[in-house]
Amino acid sequence: MTYTEPAWAKLNLALDILGKRADGYHELRMVMQSIDLADQVTVSPQPEPGCRVTSNLLYLPKDEGNIAAKAALRFFEASGTPLPGLSIDIQKNIPVCAGMAGGSSDGAAVLRLLRRLYAPEMTEEQLEEIGARVGSDVPYCIRGGTALAEGRGERLTDLPPLPPCHLVVCKPSCSVSTPELFAQVRVRKLRCRPDTAGLLRALEEQDLEGVARRMYNVFEDVLPRRYGEVFAIKGELLGLGALGASMTGSGPTVFGIFSDREKAAQAAETLSGQYAAVHLCRPVQREIKS
């Protein structure tokens, strides 16, 4: 038997860094949103012991170096049972190294599937606790929807959903080093910050333009000049009618919010002439499970 689960990509509507923690991590305050760009993750119990990962991207790790395998190991450690034979297949659609939590979403999908197979009595909160041992974005990716993420990203608060809209997501060919960006951050010297409080009010009021106006990612403040494509894409999205545009995660992917599907489709078509990874997406809301 095989069991399949979508692994939704995420966007950061806001990303703020509040300071450095004693444990070496940064204190974050982020507004996260799932979108309907997804990998497909399949788990198959196998008679042979161990965990094997396959993917349509042959260069992805096949062992615990892959977050999907790491998630499986942490799940069975937490449940106190030996790791059974498992085959995990990941069909990647989310761009790699894009700031969209593709790997974390894959790990979260594995955890959801393993709960369904081996521990249906496990609560979502317990699953998120396991996810926090796998990676900082994994608890959010387990939950999905629209959420405020604080701490390392593991403290989650559900938010009113993003109003209906269309999202154009564009990843340039470059990749950005997350550790490099964090090393560049000097919290007191950050010039711009997202209006997170205002964004939360706009979500409460279902004011899409208010959300779009208040989006910002502080990593844009420290992005080295060699990543100028990020700002070029952002400017192009705004010029093509986006209500707002921002980089997601540590980049380099940029997205724009559109209220009109035709404008969004035209923007996606225009950008597709310049960039290989362009997607026209919609928000995905949280599916509440017991």
H/I helix tally = 9
Query: In terms of structural class, how would the helical and strand content be classed?
Result: alpha+beta
Mean pLDDT metric:
95
**Topology as a string of helices (H) and strands (E):** EEEHEHHHEEEHHHEHEEHEE
Percentage beta strand: 25-35%
Radius of gyration equals 19 Å
Shape: globular
Query: Cα distance, first to last residue?
Result: 24 Å
Largest sheet, in brief, is: 8 strands, mixed
- Unreliable stretches, pLDDT < 50, 5 or more residues? none
Number of strands: 12
Helix percent band:
25-40%
Q: What does this molecule look like?
A:
The protein is of the alpha+beta class and 290 residues long. Helices cover 32% and strands 29% of the residues. It has 9 helices and 12 strands. The chain has helices spanning 67-79, 102-118, 124-134, 138-143, 178-184, 196-204, 208-214, 228-239, 261-272, and strands spanning 3-20, 26-46, 51-55, 85-91, 146-151, 155-158, 166-171, 216-217, 244-247, 254-258, 277-281, 283-284. Strands 1, 2, 3, 4, 5, 6, 8 and 12 form an 8-stranded mixed sheet that branches. It has a 4-stranded antiparallel sheet with strand order 9-10-7-11, with helices on both faces. The relative contact order is 0.18. The mean pLDDT is 95.
